[in-house]
Amino acid sequence: MRNDSTATAPATASVAAPALIDIGINLAHDSYDADRDEVLARACNAGVIQMMVTGSTAASTAQSIALARAHPGRLFATAGVHPHYASELTGESLAELTALARQSEVVAVGECGLDYCRNFSPRAAQQQAFHRQLELALQIGKPVFLHQRDAHADFIAILREHAPRWQGVAHCFTGDAHELDCYLELGLAIGITGWICDERRGAHLAPLMPRVPAQRLLLETDGPYLLPRNLNPRPASRRNEPAYLPQVAAVVARARGESLESLARSSTAAARALFRLPTL
Ligand SMILES: [Zn+2]
């Protein structure tokens, strides 16, 4: 969406907003081109103190690194090729991605993984790109930022081939109890988005939240996608942004029977530990 710059500013800014880290924001997306600085200012007011900008192609990875460079200590980048674009990861672009992934602003390799929901790249290409990025993560000693949709069995099989040599997060977890247990058994952290705020398709996630150890529970918006559906008042724009992360945190905290402050503390510490983020 490109016509969002005139949208009403999100209600944010409680004075005592607990410090949160958005581990997955597609801030290089063109829907933020018109008002990226305002988006960052609103995030800050909402207590979202650090963010990881998702790279999903070599080009968006380069943009994510540039954003991180412009906001040192506050924005960080991931370097990866999303399974939708797996066919693009040829030998030459792998060399380019490797060089990008080595930059100091890059805190994880990804997003990478498998997406059999739409199969924008053939499955064989997705699997090869996934293997290559897991190897890259191992080679440069950075964790992985993982995407999986409708591909659980192959995804787990490939991870098991490479385990236990890497660390990472299953970003935007939307699965069931079995998938969650598999991820936890593999040692992954779990990234929760506004999917959990969606009463139509995310209701199954709330009862799973108490099973995730606090030191492995991370929060993300995945903006501009996945606007939390229970925002009140409902924003005029459907574009999601980091200022809405407290809404996700509140729903997760309630599902776990803990305070927002306690969840903020543990998820912020967990993100810093996994991605080696500095304290501010
Ligand atoms: Zn994803």
What does this structure look like?
Helices cover 36% and strands 15% of the residues. It has eight helices and eight strands. The protein has 280 residues and is α/β, with parallel strands linked by helices. Strand 3, helix 3 (91-101) and strand 4 (106-115) form a beta-alpha-beta unit. The two termini are 33 Å apart. Bound molecules: zinc ion (ZN). Zinc ion is lined by residues 111, 147, 171-172.
Task: Write the SSE topology.
Layout: E1 20-25, H1 36-45, E2 48-53, H2 58-70, E3 75-79, H3 91-101, E4 106-115, H4 123-140, E5 144-149, H5 152-162, E6 168-170, H6 177-185, E7 189-192, E8 217-219, H7 245-256, H8 260-275
Parallel strand pairs: 1-2, 2-3, 3-4, 4-5, 5-6, 6-7, 7-8
The protein binds zinc ion (ZN).
Q: How does the overall form come out from the CA principal axes?
A: globular
The largest sheet has its strands arranged as 1-2-3-4-5-6-7-8
Order of helices and strands: EHEHEHEHEHEHEEHH
Largest sheet: 8 strands, parallel
Instruction: Compute the CA-based radius of gyration.
Output: 17 Å
* Overall pLDDT: 93
Unreliable stretches: 1-9
The helix/strand class is alpha/beta
What's the total number of strands?
8
Strand content: 15-25%
Quote the distance from N terminus to C terminus: 33 Å
Report the bound ligands by name, code or SMILES.
Answer: zinc ion
The helix content is 25-40%
Summed up, the helix count is 8
